[in-house]
Amino acid sequence: LGYVQLGQSSSSLSGGESQRVKLAQFLSKESGAKGALAGPTLFIFDEPTTGLHFHDIKKLLAAFNALVDKGHTIIVVEHNTDVIAAADWEIELGPEGGDKGGCLCYEGLPRSVK
């Protein structure tokens, strides 16, 4: 989020930007003993890659992997196939959204999403 200005109001951030700021805040607390959460944490992200460049998605996945390596659990609602392919477990709902969705289409190891 290099384009965000110091002192910028958090209300001016998009949902994805806000999620990434919260992730960065947690990671900064996690790296120092003071303020770190005790025990594993469950993170839920809703489409965190929206508006991200391909290189930034790789950085986000690296941050996710760092959290998992420390024993945390991450649930990601996502349409980006690179993020889905990086998952340990995939649950696909559909076949569409709204009234035409909500059915379990697939559950298991990540596969090639078409």
Structural write-up:
With 114 residues, this protein is an alpha+beta fold. It contains 3 helices and 4 strands; from the N terminus they run αβαβαββ. The mean pLDDT is 84.
Main β-sheet, spatial strand arrangement: 1-2
Please trace the helix and strand order, writing H or E for each element: HEHEHEE
Per DSSP E runs of 2 or more residues, the count of β-strands stands at 4
β content, as a range? 15-25%
For the biggest sheet, the summary is: 2 strands, parallel
Mean pLDDT: 84
| Structural class by secondary-structure content | alpha+beta
List keywords for this structure.
alpha+beta, 4 strands, two-stranded antiparallel ribbon, 114 residues, 3 helices
What's the gist of this structure?
The protein is of the alpha+beta class and 114 residues long. The protein contains three helices and four strands.
Q: Could you give the topology of this structure?
A:
Blueprint: H1 15-31, E1 42-46, H2 54-69, E2 73-77, H3 81-85, E3 90-94, E4 103-108
Parallel strand pairs: 1-2
Antiparallel strand pairs: 3-4
